[in-house]
Write a structure and sequence with these properties.
Oligomer: single chain
Radius of gyration: 40 Å
CATH superfamily of one domain: DNA gyrase/topoisomerase IV, subunit A, C-terminal
Amino acid sequence: MDDLFQKNLPVNIEDEMKKSYMAYAMTVIIGRAVPDVRDGLKPVHRRALFAMHEMGNRWNRPYKKSARIVGDIIGKYHPHGDTAAYDTIVRMAQDFSMRYLLVDGQGNFGSVDGDPPAAMRYTEVRMARITEEILADLEKDTVDFIPNYDESLEEPVVMPSKVPTLLLNGTAGIAVGVATNIPPHNLREVIAGTIALIRNPDLSIDELIAHIPGPDFPTAGFINGREGILSAYRTGRGSIRVRARAMIERNARNDRESIVVTELPYQVNKANLIEKISELVKEKKIEGIADLRDESDRDGIRVVLDLKRDEVSGVILNQLYKHTQMETSFSVIMLAIDNKQPRVFNLKEILRSFIDFRKQVVVRRTRFDLAKATDRAHILDGLIIALTNIDAVVTVIKASANPQEAAVALCENFGLTEIQARAILEMRLQRLTGLERDKIDAEHAELMKQMAYLKDILENPHRVLEVIIGELEDIQNRYGDERRTEIVVSPDEIDIEDLIVEEDMVVTISHTGYVKRNPVSLYRNQRRGGRGKMGMGTKEEDFVEKLFVASTHQYILIFSSFGKVYWLKVYQIPQAGRAAKGKAIVNLISLTQGERVAAILPVKEFVADRNVVMVTRQGVIKKTNLAAFSNPRSTGIIAIGIDAGDELMDVQLTHGNQDIFLGTRMGMAIRFHEEDVREMGRGARGVRGIMLAPEDTVVGMEIPSEGSGMATITEKGYGKRTTVSEYRLQTRGGKGTINLRT
C-alpha cells in the first residue's frame, strides 16, 4: 500500500481537468452561490441564522454585538472570512435590499446611496420576528443535520421554513457556469398563491398569476409591462422593466415645473443616479434641467429636478428613463438547488417544491410530537397506578434496600415498566395530594386528545394539507402587508400622457428646422385688415414653412428628405412664446447629416381606412396604409425607398377615394385618381406619378376636395386660382397639362 502512494500514476490531463473542475463547480454552486428551493437560503445565510438561533439571539431578546455573531458563524459553521459573514448579516438587515428583513439591526447598516455599514464592533443585531417562522420546529427532528466543517458540531441541511422564502426575498448569485436572480415578492400574495395550489394542484401558471401578479420590490417603483413577468413565471427566465416613480410638481412662485423622484428601481444607487444625471446635463445630452438636488431624509427618497421655463416635463422624464438607471431591466433566472442539483424552476414548480417540503416537515414534526406525547402518557399511566395503590407502593419502597431494588419490586408487583418505576421513585411527596392527582388525570386526558389528533394527521394526508394551510393563513394575517411595486399593464410610457392636459396647439415649423407649439387661445380673433400678431421669431433668410393645429395628445409623423419617418407627440414639442423661434428639431428627433424635414402629418389614430401618399422630387409616388406607421421607434423607420439623387418632397393623407394633384417647377400639372396607385409596403420605392421633362422637378402635391379650387403661386409672387374640374382626370405617369407658363 505504501508503494502505491509513492508511485506517480499517469492520467489524461483532459479527463482530470473535467473531473476536478466539475467537482469545484458543484461545490461553488451548492455550497456558496445558489439557494435551496426548500428554504430559499444559501449556506451562509442558513449558518448565520442558525448561529443566532443557537445563541438565543431571538427577536424578543436584547441585541448582541455583530462581532460576536460573526465570531460564532465563522468559528462554528462557516470557515471563511469575517467580511463575508458580516456582509451577509448586513444585507439581511437592509430594508432597501430585503422585502422582509431577516435580521433586526441597530446602528448604521448602509444606505441606498451605497454608504458602507459601520464596523461590526459598533452594530448590534438580533433575529427579526418573521425569522422565527423560518426556524420554527427546528428542535423537533423536522430536518436532517450534518456535521459542521470540523465535525465538532452539527448544523441543519435546510431550515424547516413555514414560508416560501425563495420568493419572498428573492436571491442573486453567480456560480460557475450558472447564475440565479430571483426577484422578491409580496408575502400576502405568495401565500395566497400557495394556498390556492394546495387546494387545486392542477392550477395553471396563468391561474397562479391571478394570486401572484408579479414581483414586489422593497424600493417600490413601477414594473412596466407584464410580458417579462409572464415569461419568468412560465419558463423561469425573463426580463422585467422597472422604473422609478416620478411626479410633476409646479412651483406656484415662479410657475416652473419640477420632476420629483420618490421611488427608485430595485438595487439602484441613488448617489450614482444623481451623479449620472448631472453628467448628462453637463454634456447637454439632456437639456432643460435648471437645478438638481437631493432632498431625501428619514421619511423617504426625494430627488428634485427643477426644469427651465417652458420645458416639457414629459419629454425630459422620458430622456431620464432612457439614459439613466431611472429605468432598469431585472433579468430573472429562477435557478435553485433541488436534490443537490441546480435547475431552473417556473413559478408553479417553486411553490410545488415548497409544499412537498412542508408536507415532509409537518409529518416529521407530528411524529416527533406523537412520540413525546406517547412517552409522557406512558409515565402518567404509571403515576396513576402508583397513586391508586399508594399505600402498597410506599410499603414496597420502604422494604427495598436501594433504589434499584425498589424499581425492580415495583415492576414485579404492579406490572410497571422500568421508565414508569423510575418516574414513581423520583416523584415528590406533594404529588400525593388530591389536587395533584386531579392535575395528573387532566393532563392524561389532554394527552389522549392530542395523540388522537396527531394520529389523525399521520393517517390522513388531507389533514397534513389542512395544517399547512392553517399555518400559512396565520402567517399571512400576522405579517402580510400591502404591495409596494405598482404593475403597469401597458408596455408604453408610464402615465406621461396623463400628466399632460389635452388641448389644441398651434404647431409652427420654420424652413431651417425650428419648431415650437403654442395654445390656440394665445391667438385672439381679429377683424379683416388688421396687422395680426407675430407667431414666430425667425432669423434672417428663415421663414415659417409649416403651421397646423393639433391636440397635445396627437402624434405627428415627421417625414425626412431621405424617406424616413419619425414620431413625436405634440406635447413633446417645446412650448415657447409667440416671438420665440422655438427649438431645433434635430434636438427632438435623430436626423443625420444632410437630412431635413420634408413633411409633417398630425395623426390622432392609426386607422386602416386612411392612406399615406408620398411623392418625391423626381415624380415617384407611393401609397401606404396609415396603420403601417402605428409602431413608433425612436430612431425612425423607412417610409419610402429613395433613389440616388432624389428626395422626398411631400406627404399627404387620403381617404382612399380621392384625386391627387401634382405640380412641377416648369408649370406642368397632373390630376389622377388615387386608385391608380396601388398600396405598397413601407420599404417599397413607389411608382411614376408624372413624367418629367429634363431639369424639371415636382414642387407641390395637393389632395383637392370635390368642387374646390386650386391656387398656383410662383416663386416671384405671381399666382392664379383655377377650379379643379378644369384639370382633366388622367392616368398616373403621364406628362400632365400646362398649369402655368413660366
